[in-house]
Amino acid sequence: MSRIGRMPIPVPSGITIDITGSLVTVTGARGTLSQGIPDGISVRRDDDQLVVERETDNRVHRSLHGLTRSLINNMVVGISQGFEKRLEIVGTGYRAQIAGDSLSIAAGFSHPVVVKPPEGVTFSMDGPRMVIAGMDKQLVGETAAQIRRLRPPEPYKGKGIRYQGEYVRRKAGKTGSKKR
Q1: Domain span at residue 53?
Q2: Model confidence, pTM
Q3: If DSSP states are collapsed to H, E and C, what string results for the chain?
């Protein structure tokens, strides 16, 4: 049996969960998220926790069991606590700033790149670090990946946009050739 799928999902106070047919909706102070449930997977509520179960032990149901449980758990955590990704911008002349609700990034291009946040995602700055926050884990991660994709860290000088704590493997540059 799936180790992740059989763990119950704790539901904190202040969050309401509505299970209607093949749709789970989580509502709280931060907003509302909903997720479809695949066929063969069921979700039931036991007091202050949710239990995800599968009908059979066939390969498809086994693979969807843990996935469904993780998606529902991410909705509950996102509504109660939220998610954030931190990006660092490294390089001489590379900088980012908040302009209204969007993010303006100067990363070695001839013009600053303006990134508008999707619905439910907010940008903030913490020194040279960009903080992308929101309640939908997938949307926060995708937004951070799109920003990082503007100027990924290069291996020679390490310049670019990287996740906080990301290790960039450095390469040795060219060595001067000696003519005899």
Answers
A1: 9-80
A2: 0.86
A3: CCCCCCCCEECCCCCEEEEECCEEEEECCCCEEEEECCCCEEEEEECCEEEEEECCCCHHHHHHHHHHHHHHHHHHHHHHCCEEEEEEEECCCCEEEEECCEEEEECCCCCCEEECCCCCEEEEEECCEEEEEECCHHHHHHHHHHHHHHCCCCCCCCCEEEECCCCCCCCCCCCCCCCC
